[in-house]
Amino acid sequence: MEEKEKRVAGIYIRVSTEDQAREGFSLGEQQEKLEALCKYKEFEIYKVYKDAGISAKDMEHRPQFQEMLEDMKKGKINYIVAYKLDRVTRSVKDLEELISLLEKYNCYLVCDRDDVNTSTANGRFFVRMLTVLSQLEIEIVSERTKFGLEGAIKSGHLPGVCPMGYKKVNKMTVIDPVTAPIIKRTFDLYLEGKTFLQISKIYNKENLLNKKWTDTQINRIIDNRVYTGDYEKHKRLKEKTKEETTIYMNVIDPIIPRYIWEECQLQKLKNQRNYTRTRVYTFFQKLKCPKCGILLKCKGSGGRKSKYLYYNCPKCHFNISEKYVEECFQDVLYELLKFDEEYNRYFLPLFADKNDKVNNKGIKEEIKKLNEQKDRIKKAYSTGVVELDDFREDLKTINEELKILNQEQEKKLKNGDIKSYSLENILVNRDLSRIFAYNDEDKDFILNEWTIKTKEGKQEFIARYIEDITFIKDKKYKNGIKLEHINFKSIYLDKVKDLLYNQSYETLDIIFINNNIRSINISSPMEENTFNDYFNELDNFIKPKKYKLLDNADNGYLTEKKFNLDFDNTKEKLLKLIPVVKRDKYNANNKKYDLYLITYN
Hints:
Layout: E1 8-15, H1 17-23, H2 27-40, E2 44-52, H3 63-73, E3 79-82, H4 85-88, H5 92-104, E4 108-111, E5 116-117, H6 121-154, E6 166-169, E7 172-175, H7 180-191, H8 196-205, H9 215-223, E8 231-233, H10 235-241, E9 246-248, H11 258-271, E10 287-288, E11 297-300, E12 309-313, E13 318-321, H12 322-328, H13 330-347, H14 357-382, H15 392-411, H16 423-437, H17 440-451, H18 455-465, E14 466-473, E15 481-488, H19 490-501, E16 506-513, E17 516-523, E18 526-527, H20 528-538, E19 544-554, H21 556-559, E20 562-563, E21 573-581, E22 592-600
Helix pairs in contact: 5-6, 8-9, 13-17, 14-15, 16-20
């Protein structure tokens, strides 16, 4: 008599949280029914394999399922018994792999509720059809979930934990006025040249938010695109797989402009490179090799306080001394320092948001008082009453306080129209300060302000405004180097755009008057009514004169540099050149100007 085949079963039970909530597929119920089925079919039960709270999307990440397959390969079981086919798999690909394994190791699959038996061709075909339907269900649910999630994100309902700087209000992600300024400050500090570690130390010293700050937390803030108002889906998955993520633009209110975030990402790439950082370098990561274009490495000899610091290109063997760079950079430094002071003192109010007028009142008063103190020191120095060294510490303290207050005020401001400040008043105040203050002594004063900055302060100032600088070797110039090119950062360029838009920007140029070379400020184009208001306001303080140099010029003020006019060189001093647009509203497409020279006695 032929011996009956021994049938040894492995019972496989699985449940996900969603399954149990929806249909009551508890592990206990499945096991009880399957044990009864095995008894009815006279199967010997080798083991019960349980995967709890795990999806059937793949076989790889189910430990008990993998153990069951290993036991099948070792011949310990020849039947797999499950409650339903979707407990085993919902993937057509995984099913084909499973059926191949079952055939290879002479094992069969039996599913109670689906009446599945893979021991026959019809049974295997039926199993494939059930799995196709099961996978279709998964994909439909996934599409619905994805569609619903996308709709929620686009409506400002961001999933996950709310990042610092934002809070949830009725499930909407909105700006948190308490922590948003910290986010702005973090990006500002990073662009000023501070590292993640340095920023975290500053916050820990201030005991900010009564929490422990780490460089990793600062890194996450700088790296988070959400602060631009965009949401990056599956960002953590991207870090592991390097795959592209989905970005939803402008889904919530931004805390910082997008260009600031992008600049910080470029800065991160630079910081990740291997530069010498044992000393503080004024032009750290700012000098480019004139031959190959890479950023020069910082080098130094001697101890930490050694004065001999230089920059080097290891590829082209180009070397340049920091001392010589700073000396060659003096004129640019003067213009930058003057621009920074004038922008903060005179033009920042041009961009004030009307809602901030009351809140800014106290800050403006403090700024005014500090500027008055600074003017008194400047006057005492320029008249020779005292040496600047006598006021170094006071001046340093004033500058630090002004920096903090100006940053605080700038955070409250937005680019926009003039709301409560007269443009002509501001322009006249700025020009009067130049008339009565800006001279050789004033230039010395401003450059002396540079010398009293710490090395960190100098590095921070350069990092804030300058992207990169290129010098070349040229024996015709002092110290054998010549400034070839400067790329300014968008922070500086945006300030220039603000002034251009509000008819307030000026640049220094050279012209010829009666065959004499003269250096003069050239203003951005003014509307005719603004020009007239400005001139009349100026007339209240000094006796200005205006000379019409060009009439209906087509950008002539940019190219025509030689003028002959009835100009009393012994009595009259040059103030500025102003291109005037003859209409009420400036049209950028119209390039016809009248050009006026403004002088005073």
